[in-house]
Structure formats: C-alpha cells, structure tokens
Design goal:
The structure is a homodimer.
Chain A (H helix, E strand, L loop, with lengths): L3 H5 L1 H13 L12 H4 L3 H12 L11 E5 L14 E4 L1 H10 L1 H25 L1 H12 L3 H8 L1 H19 L4 E8 L2 E14 L2 E5 L10 H9 L4 E4 L6 H16 L7 E3 L5 H8 L4 E7 L2 H10 L4 E5 L4 E5 L5 H13 L9 E7 L12 H15 L3 H8 L5 H11 L5 E4 L3 E2 L9 E2 L2 E6 L3 H4 L7 E7 L2 H15 L4 E4 L3 H14 L3 E3 L32 H5 L2 E8 L4
Parallel strand pairs in A: 5-6, 5-8, 6-7, 8-9, 10-11, 10-17, 11-16, 15-16, 17-18
Antiparallel strand pairs in A: 1-2, 3-4, 4-19, 12-15, 13-14
Helix pairs in contact in A: 2-9, 4-7, 6-9, 6-11, 7-8, 8-9, 9-10, 14-15, 19-20
Chain lengths: ~550, ~550
C-alpha cells in the first residue's frame, strides 16, 4: 500500500521523474512571488515570520543542547541577532543515528512521500525563506526568493526523484526458481532491504544556503540517512528554518525529529570533529577548495560530494549579435555581484579582435564595450541594487579593492561603491573588469570569487580554446561559454568540453545566462573536473548513499 | 538507428534488464558444459585451444612492447610456460587513451552492442577458458567451467545491463521551452554527451581471474572507458584470452584495439606505477586488504572499487534438518578448498549446544559431526578432487599447515594431503576445522584464506549474533549465514545484517550454498562493510564511471 503522502504528492514526483528523463522544461514550484501562486497574505506573512526570528532564540529542541550561539552579520547591514541551539556534536550524531532504524522502516515510498511533504511545506514558506536568504547571503530580493525558495526546492525534489528511481529498482521480494532438469527446481525466496549508510552531514556555503544544500540534504534523507546541517557560520537562518520544518513534518508523521538537526559549531575544530566523526558516512560540501580537500583527505570514513572553487571561462571568437552578447554578459557578470560559483571569470579574446555584425572589434574595443554595457545596465539604482545585492564576505570586498587598484591587471572597469537607499549600511559594489595577456596566469589562474572578471588576450581562437581547456583541467569550472558564428570553432570547443567535462553554453544573447542552470534539465557541474566531484543531480549522486542488504531462504512449505 | 550488434543481442540485453529488476532466476549462458549448449566439438576444440597456448608466446600486438614475460605456475603442477607481452606502462596508457574518443563516438547503443558481442564470443570460448582458469587458479574442472566461463560472463553482462540502463536515461537531445507569460517562450536546444572518465585498470585476483574481473571490466568499457587488465602474476592466461578476444571484436568493428590491453608488470613497483598513473581514473581490485588500502590511499586520482579480505560468519542456533545442514556446510567448506572470498570462516555455536531434529547436540558434538560430514563427503577421491581442486598459493598451504598443527585452536578435523591421479604434482588439501572459545580472537578475527574454519564457542545465541555483527563490522564479510528454527532469532540476525550490511542466507539445507551468488539476482557484496566498497552489480557500480557533458544553444531559426 503506497504511503498517503506519496499519494498526495504523486503528480509532483511523476513530473520530476518524467523530466529528469526528457530534460525539457518543467517546474514544480512557482518562481514568481505572486499572490496567485502563494496566496494573498503570503508576502506579508513571510515577512512577519522572518522578522519574528530577529533578536530571538531559534528553538529547535535538539539533543545535547548546551546553550545558544549566534554568529551572523548581514551584508545589508541590518541587525539579526538570532541565537541558535549550541549542541554537543557527539550527542547530535548519536541522536541522529538513534532515529535511523525507524526511518529505514518507513520504506522507500514512505520516505519519498515525507520528503515531498517537506518540500511542499518549505515551498509555502518561500517568502520567509527569501528574507532569510537575502539578509544573510546578500542576494537581491528576487534572486533570494527564486534561488533560495522554489529553485532550491526543485533541486531538492530532483534529488528525491533520482533517489526514488534508483531505490524503486530494488524489489522488496523475489522468488528465484532455478530449473534442475528432471529434478525439482531450486527455489529461494529473497528479500531486499534498502539501507542508508549512516549519518550525512551537509556543509552549507555563505552564498546559496539552500540551493547548494538541498540536493545533498534530500538525496541523503530520501535514501534512508539522518542528516545534520552545518551551515556557514554567517548564514545560519535559512538552514535553521529548513531544519525546523523538517523536524515538524517528521514529528507529525510519528517519527523521531532528531533524524535531522542543525549544528552551529563553536569553532573550526568543532566542525572538523563533526565531519570526522566515525558514524558520519556522507558529507555534502560547497565551499573553498582548501577545506574541501581537507574533507576528502581526512574524512575517509565518509563519501564526500564536494563542490569547490573553479575558474569559469568564456571564449569570444565572433558573433552576429554584438549588442545582445554584451547585454547578456553584462547581466551575467553583475548578477549577485558575481558571487556565484557559475559566474564567468576568464573571458578569452583573440589579440586580433573579433568579427561581429557591427564590424570587426579589437580586443580593447570589446573590453571597453563590455564595460560600457555593464555601466549602462546598472545605471538605474533600482536595477543595480536588485541585481547586485550586497557583498557577502570581507574577503570578497578585499579582492574587489585589489582588482580595482590594478593588482590583477589593467583596470578596464573600476568597481564603484553604491548606497542602497533601503539599507544604508549595505555593502554594494559594481563589477570590476581587468585586462591582461594570457601569460599573466598568476592573476586569473585561480578563483577570484566575486565580481572580478578578466579580459584575457590570447593569440587566436585556437589558443583561446586550448587555454579554456587547460583552465578547466587544472582549476575546474562549473560553466563554460563560447560565442562564435563558425561551426568548426563550436565543434572544437565542444570537443574540448568533452575532454575536460564541463557544461557549455553557446551564443547566449537572450534571457538565458551561462551562470544559471535549471533543475531537471541542466546538470549543475559534471563531477568530472576539479570544480566538483559530483553533479546536481544524477544517478551517481544518489546511488551510493544506500546499500541493499538481502536475505534468502527456501520458502516455507 | 540502433547499432546492428545491439539488435543482434537485444534479447540477451532485455533478459538482463528485466532480471536485474525482478531479481528472479535467469541465465544468459548455459552453465552445463554440454555439446547441446556449446556444440559437438566445443569440448575438444577448447582443450586444443588451451594446449596451443602452452610453451608459446601469447601474441597481442600491443603498444609499447619491449619483450616477453611469463610468471605462472600451475597449482596442478603442469608446465605452462606461456609468455605474455611485456609492455611499457606509459605507452599502454597512452595508447588506451588515444583509442577513447572513437569509443565515445560509437555511442551508448554501439558500445553496448559491442560489449554484448564480446561476451557472446567469450561464451563460445568457455571450454578454452575453463582449462585456463583451472590450470592457473587450481579450481576443479566444473567450477572452472562455470565460474570461469558462463557465470563470469553473466556478471559481465549484468554490469553491461546496469551501465546501459543508467546511460539510457540520458537523452541525446532535448528542447527546453520555458513560458514567459505574454512574451515568447525561452527556448534552448540541449545536447547531452555521455563521456567516460578515463583509463580503467582492472586488477585481477589469483582465484577467480574472470568472475571477479568481468564486472569491473565491462562496467568500465560499456560506460566509455579504455581498460587495462592487470591479472595476478600467477594467473595470467584467462585475462590474456579475454583481452585477445576483445581486441579482435574491436578490430572487426573498425575500432582501435588498444582500447583494451593486458599488462603483466615486471614488478610490484611497476604495478604501482600503472595504478597511480594520472590518466588512470578507475581501478577495480580484488585481493588483499593491504594492497587494497594502498590503492585507496595512494591512487586518489582514480575511483577505486575494491573487494578485500573478510571473515564470513555463520551462526548455528538450532535446526530441524541436522543432517542436511551438515551436508550443506560440508560442501561449502570443501568447495575449491575454501579459497573463495565467500566461504564461511567463523562458525558460531552456543556453549550449551543446539536443538535439532535429532535431539540436542553439544558444542563438541556439532563440531565432530561437521568433521564427519566433511570426511564422508570427500571420501570418494573423484568427488574430492572435483570439489577441492588444488591450493593456489604457498601462503594458503602454510596457513593450512599451521592450523593443522594446532596453532589456531584445537584441531577438530586435520587437513590431509591427497594425490590427484590425473595431476600427480597437484597440491591438494582437505579442509581444517579448529575449535576455540570466543575469547581467542587472535585466531579467527582476521581472514585465514583457504580451507580453514573455526568452530567458535559463544555464550549463547544472542552473543553469537552480537559477535557475528562485530566480526562483519570490524573485519568485513561478503556472506553471513544462520541456522535457526526460531523466528525471533532470525529477526535479530536479520536486523544485525541490516546494521552491518551483509547478505544473509537462512537455513540452507539443499542445493544452494552460502558461498554462491547468482548473477542478476544475488548482489555480491553490499559495498557497506570492510570486505568491499562496492557490489556486483548495482547502479552505484556503474553510475560514476561516466559523466554527462551538456551543451545548450538557442535553436537556429
């Protein structure tokens, strides 16, 4: 008998299962923050729910609580002062593990149904979540709503769909009858149990606290594992809201809420103790390559799914839509001040310039036209603030300053500080463009996170493709782009991306951007270059999070 | 258009795809070495083909050949003297990699069809392979035919089916149309390319040179990767025959045969150089935990699928078929002189004895009855030699001697040397049974590979289950067994196997044995305890051997 929550959300699951196979467009949760989709009072209710957290204790009733801890500062400069449960790490892990057998007993259908219910409830909280994501990560409002809410939920749903598909292949029971010629057949009755691997830890990042955490969270949960969410110390509230909702749904379904917990460690050492705990069997991580490598090297008891730093290249060979190309790039480089793991950093342009529908453009001209396009795009303050958001970290602020001071090459577009009238203390910066010859690898051949992009002068298009390939091979990349009107060039770039395993966007001149990926259709990361060892989401992302334990016996007479 | 070889073997693939889902009985290749299945002359042809290898150079026309190398000695004491190509490791890897793009271009259907053709051709060589496996591994004839031939081929087919299923989920192309309200939809045309990860190395073991190698070989190959087979230095011929056949089929299909190569390294250091080569991206390994750990620790550039040592436990609580239980165990402990990674090593029996249909039996009585059952089973020399085969390695011989001399506990059944009339120099030993209290962990708490089993006296059934669980948790196990007439005991054991993730066989008293697993139905290993980090086969075994590289563009008008 299917679980009632699986019945309730069956059409959502079916939509996801259908679309991960066809990879066309499909959406489960409305990306428009409209009363029609979310209800007349949703916007106001969500704002109030967010404001109710400020200055308060965020009660979760977790195991091993020893006190309260608050560590957030808002890039928008507002006071947050939320206090979260400070919990003893071994107690959290033990409580999570104690909740695991009952979660296993719920079975594949039950776990899937409950995950779908959780996602549905999170969706209804999208406004509350949007404020939480915006005020902690520095995203602009619309991005915070979309990427923090429905798009993150869809990445979670996608992981649930992959997990469900793989687990559904395992029959609960089979009858094995092997003919023995004239003798009676050998008959065995076999049972197959899907078993989670153990506690999963999801380590969140400071820029996309839900979008980058939900795939691992829901993949681990759906496959039978407890999960401890360890958010970035400066971006906790979105994870806390998520954990509270999950614990509520678990409780409503008669399950032990300790299956999912929030961990806000006191120190980096406490974080290391959490991830290295022998009962932690999977770690989903988004963040610096430094700590990611530490996890892979030191947490050998666990499978590590890691999204690390990268340098995303774009090759510009030629275009038949010069202005549209510039507008597209200007948006990409400005969105959330380039604080996306998918933002292009290395823009490779032949020294001799490019052919366009507006005639030939020199290397320098392309740079200055792109600078103008960015300036034009951000000319209206309301557009600028909506698109740029605020700078999340001090390190990014410092990098912008250094790049603006010419430390990374010749400044083509200097960064500007803007004042956000709604949030006077917000730290807002416009993008920096610098230019350098391909030989100056020390500038661009490692991630410069934030709104810093390099116009790199290469000998010709062939050299540009070769450099793009080497960048991806050595530094990793989540996205690559090319502009060309020449099929042979597009083919050469395509083959380069096959070799180094990076997704390619070709001649984007409209409303799709290289730094955006759509759930169910675009794989986020290939898992095949240094920027990530896994993809959101594919079968490999879920299949090793559970194991199958069989038992067999001759059927009783 | 489907590939002609996929068409040719479609029903075989369909059978495999159906059965990995239902997990009932199905067979693709006949396990009976009969003229009806294999042709009137197959037995004689196969024998001659095997004999033609002896004393000769095994020509493969591989890249980087520098000479010849022969390292085998037969456990049956016959002269082999086969010389294999000695090849430069970097040259082999470079040649394999050069063959990869064309293999990728064949596509999912083409690769699957060619893998199915290879398996079909290997199946037709089953007699030749049986002699090669028998004379190198020491298996008895029937096991060498079945496990070396059709059963190994079916494990390979199973891997192909899993790979095909996962790759088939990836559409070659999709149209993504996102509605934009009153504006025209955003439309992207997307292409998805399945790309192998790079050179796979398959490191074979000395006891099951094909059965344990074909899953990794075919999983890697089907998913688009070149493969280098590195057989155990004393068991090369089965791998060489396999490689020659694969290279023939590749050539017939217009492909570069260097995609698959045999590597017979000059030294352990040369093997290490092979597996640590930066272009090697997957390693399938069966063998000692020592080298397996080395691979996992040192070959960080590759994914390692490892089957390592283990200690397989059986709990005897009670039985309603005492004689049948003893016969079943006697066969399990005797088969191939216990040189199977699935043979039971630790037999846990309550100190107070067990209830049976023949009345209560003391701990000592069970031990002596099992010893008698083994002696009875092996009483006829022709049965003994067919079942026992020969001892593969000097180390195993030494362990048998030590156990027989009482170094591992009280000897309940002493090993005997037998003389095989057909192979007077064969080294044949009957099983050793020793008995010890549970406290003597130094004896049994690590793998004692070969025909050495421990009757372990535990306080009671609860303690037996707890000890079995601890054995699996700390030492790993591929199989576990229990005999009990008590449902509560079976439930407790079942739950223990869920916790430590090991397959359980319950009350085996007929023609199915704890150490045997059937392709398509039984998972071999769970991948969830120290005996193996992967299972033959499941989705996790294939899904991370390829990546998907997408490209997207607005459709041309």
């Amino acid at each position: 008998m299917p679980h009632p929550l699986l019945d309730k959300h069956r059409s959502t699951l079916d939509g996801a299962l259908r679309t991960i196979k066809t990879r066309g467009y499909w959406s489960a949760y409305s990306e428009m923050p409209s009363p029609k989709a979310y209800g007349e009072t949703a916007a106001e209710d969500g704002k109030r729910a967010f404001e109710a957290h400020l200055g308060n204790h965020f009660e979760l009733h977790q195991a091993g609580q020893t006190g309260w801890r608050g560590t957030e500062t808002s890039p928008y400069g507002i006071e947050l002062n939320v206090q979260y449960p400070a919990c003893d790490v071994p107690a959290l892990v033990a409580a999570a593990q104690a909740a695991m057998p009952a979660w296993q007993a719920v079975g594949v259908d039950g776990r899937t149904g409950i995950c779908l219910e959780i996602l549905d409830r999170l969706n209804k909280q999208s406004f509350e979540m949007a404020h939480a994501v915006m005020m902690t990560s520095g995203q602009g409002w619309m991005m915070a709503f979309q990427a923090g809410g429905p798009h993150a939920q869809e990445r979670g749903l996608e992981a649930v769909a992959y997990a469900y598909r793989e687990m559904s292949f395992i029959p609960e029971r089979s009858l094995w009858e092997k003919p023995q010629g004239k003798h009676p057949a050998l008959v065995m009755e076999k049972h197959f149990q899907v078993v989670g691997r153990g506690v999963g830890v999801v380590v969140g990042c400071a820029t996309f606290p839900t979008w980058n955490s939900y795939p691992g969270l829901f993949a681990a949960l759906a496959t039978g594992n407890p999960v401890i969410l360890k958010p970035h110390s400066s971006v906790v509230l979105p994870a806390a809201i998520t954990v509270r909702t999950i614990r509520q749904v678990l409780t409503e379904n008669g399950l032990n809420p300790d299956l999912v917990a929030l961990c806000v460690p006191a120190s980096h050492e406490a974080t290391q103790a959490l991830v290295a705990h022998p009962d932690v069997r999977s770690i989903d991580y988004t963040g610096s390559t430094h700590f990611g490598r530490w996890l892979i090297d030191n947490c050998r008891q666990a499978q590590v799914y890691a999204e690390l730093a990268g340098v995303n290249p774009i090759v510009i060979d030629s275009t038949d839509a010069y202005q549209a190309m510039l507008r597209n790039l200007a948006f990409t480089l400005s969105l959330y001040s380039g604080q996306m793991c998918t933002t292009s950093q290395a823009i490779l342009i032949p020294a001799s310039g490019i052919h366009t529908d507006e005639g030939d453009k020199s290397f320098e001209q392309v740079g200055s036209d792109l600078a103008s396009a960015i300036t034009r795009f951000l000319a209206k303050p309301e557009v600028a603030h909506a698109v740029l958001g605020a700078i999340q970290s001090d390190n990014t602020l410092r990098r912008i300053e250094q790049a603006g001071a010419g430390a990374m090459g010749q400044v083509v577009l200097a960064p500007q500080s803007l004042t956000n009238p709604d949030f006077p203390k917000a730290r807002v910066r416009t993008p920096v463009l610098v230019s350098c010859p391909a030989a100056d690898e020390s500038h661009y051949m490692h991630e410069q996170f934030g709104p810093i992009s390099f116009l790199i002068k290469v000998a010709d298009t062939t050299a540009a493709i070769a450099l793009a390939e080497r960048i991806v091979r050595t530094q990793g990349a989540l996205t690559a782009g090319i502009y060309s009107t020449d099929t042979a060039v597009l083919d050469a770039m395509t083959q380069a991306t096959w070799r180094v395993q990076v997704a390619l966007s070709i001649n984007l001149t409209g409303g799709v951007f290289v730094n955006q990926s759509a759930a169910f259709s675009d794989f986020h990361g290939t898992g095949g270059n240094p920027a990530a060892n896994a993809s959101y989401a594919d079968s490999a992302f879920v299949a090793n999070r559970f194991r199958v334990v069989q038992r067999r016996a001759h059927p009783s007479a």
